[in-house]
Structure formats: structure tokens, C-alpha cells
Amino acid sequence: MGRGAEVVVLEARARIGGRVLSHRTASGAYNLGPAWVWPGIQPRIARTIQAAGPALTEQAEAGGFVFQDQTGGTQCLPHGFAQEPPSMRIAGGIAALVEAVANGLAPGVVRLEQAVRRIALTETGVAVTAETRSGPVTLHAARAALALPPRLIGGIEIVPALPPSVQAALAAVPGWMAGQAKALALYDRPLWRDAGLSGSAFSQAGPLGELHDASLRGAAEAALFGFFAWPPALRAGRRAALPEPVARQLGTLFGAEAARPREVIIQDWATEPFTATKADQVNGNAHPDYRPIALPAPWGERITLAGAEAAPEFGGYLEGALAAAEAAYLG
Ligand SMILES: Cc1cc2nc3c(=O)[nH]c(=O)nc-3n(C[C@H](O)[C@H](O)[C@H](O)COP(=O)(O)OP(=O)(O)OC[C@H]3O[C@@H](n4cnc5c(N)ncnc54)[C@H](O)[C@@H]3O)c2cc1C
Question: Cα–chain-centroid distance for residue 154?
């Protein structure tokens, strides 16, 4: 792309952030996508935090840890697993970082509701056609950087078409957490702490498989979040009814009062067409070994993959997204 290049960002959704999304209350922003960063080992995240200035807090893990087995039975252990380095959370949510970056861009650089449907190689670069509210719009540029999960490239018509082996290679790269869903439960107070519990739990019974305290520092409310153990197909069949089994499980894990959260918010990424594909309809538990992906000539001279799943390091993570974007811009 080259330093100093003029850049336009075409974003399919009506909002910025992609997998970064918040649920906002009067107390602040809760993460429905990524929540944790590790600035001690992630230099680009550390620089972004330093420039944006939000406060950092360690993920609350103090207190007992609940384990739920396949039968639904629970066991309280004196402490959970210590994360090293500790997972850090950002005041204002991860969205605060995204907003800080976006605020530094000139007006008009980011264009929302422009879903890219076609990229044609031209004599001098690329012709990129996006679907907009007022019909298709084609932009001409020297290069295109695709900062999205590689499987989504299968939904874009590339002209000339990529060789079948390259299409298959892209389709084989899972979007990290693309098939996952998060539940957020809001309470008036962190009642689990009354019983000496941290709010962390692992469950083999579901619907949630891994839970943590999501409370905001100094807030007049408290929260827990959990990743679903139930796969996308099981969630799909009972979309509107999901808060009920989630609340029931919270009661089993943290005591009867926890079964009555003020509100349960569910964010199911597997249902989002600009995050997940049909192939992502599984809970990706093991972190894939992501590698940089370069398209062969002639496509590679014009089209660069720049999302977290094509990162030179920290593939799949926010740091990976920054690393891949940096490589695309400077490369
Ligand atoms: C539930 C969950 C928890 C996670 N937890 C963590 C965590 O704690 N820490 C961490 O580091 N990472 C975590 N991740 C991963 C993190 O979210 C990703 O690494 C990061 O968001 C990837 O950024 P990206 O820009 O590469 O992709 P995305 O965030 O997916 O952005 C891609 C963008 O492309 C847009 N787009 C897609 N198709 C088109 C098209 N045809 N035309 C135009 N625009 C299009 C999308 O709308 C989106 O805005 C988590 C992810 C999820 C879902």
C-alpha cells in the first residue's frame, strides 16, 4: 500500500468495529465481542492504548471458581486458573480503542453500508464494486486490502476468479470465534462475591461453557459474561428463548439469586453474515495456527489480506488485526 497512500475504508455494516461491539448501559460499555488484551506482550495494542488513553484493569479472578460437570453438578474450587500474563480489560470497552482510531481519520475515509461484492483486476489496479443504499458503486484504486475473515472472500466475486486451490485455502481458514456467541447478564450488585466467588466458572453442561465477571469498575451495577458451549445449530433453534436456560445455569453456578439477572443480552456471532459463513457454524475452541496469506500473481500484486486471520503474529487476536493491517499498509 505504501506510507502516505490515500485510503478509503468500505464497511459493509452500518457501524464500525466488526467483531468489536458493546452493550451500553448508563454505567458504561460491556464487550459483546473481544474483551481482553495483553499489552505487556502485544506492542501494537500497547501503543494504541497509550495513544487513546483509557484505563486498564485486570480481569477480576479473585475468589472461588465453580466447575460444573456433564450431569450439571457443581463443585467450588478455592481459585480458578491464573492467566499469565493476566487478561486486561479496557475502560470504555474495546470499542473505546476502535473509536479512538476512527476519530483520528479524516471525515469520509470510512464509508458505512458499503458491502464489497466484486473486485476486478484492471490495467492499473483494482475496480471495487460495493453494494450501497443507492445501488452499486465502483471505486478504482491501485490496491485493495481485505481486512476481514478469509472465508468471507468467498462471497466476493474476484475477476479473474482465483484458482480453485486458492479458494479452497481461503475457505479452510476459520474466522476466530466467528461461530461463538456471548451472553451478558446484568445485576444490581455482584452477588456472587457475597459467597466468596470470583464469577469465573467452567461448565461441561452448558448452555455456557466458560464464564467470568464482567463488572465495570466503580459502576452501580454488576455483570457476568459467558461463552456458549452450545453449538450454533442448538442456539439457532431457540434464539429468543436463550436467556432463560442461561439464567437458570447462572442460578446453579452462583446461587438462586443469580438466576434472576436484571437482563440477559445474547450476541450470536454465528448469525452475522459479515463475520461468519456456513463453515463457521461450529464453536471454534482450539485456536488455529494462523499464518500470513498471500494471493498468487496476478492477484497478489493488487489484493492484500489484512485481517486478524492473516496476521504475521497473534493471528486471530486484536493484536493480530493491527499487525496484519500494519503489514498491508507498509508492505
Ligand atoms: C466473542 C468473541 C470474543 C473474542 N475475544 C477476543 C479477546 O478477548 N481478545 C482478542 O484479542 N481477540 C478476541 N476476539 C477476536 C477479535 O474480535 C478479532 O481478532 C478482531 O476483531 C479481528 O479484527 P478484523 O478487523 O481482522 O476483523 P473483523 O472485526 O471481523 O472486521 C471485519 C470487517 O469487515 C467487514 N466486512 C465483512 N465483509 C465485508 C464486505 N464484503 N464488504 C465490506 N466490509 C465487509 C465487517 O463488517 C467487519 O467490520 C474475539 C472475537 C469474538 C467474536
Answer: 20
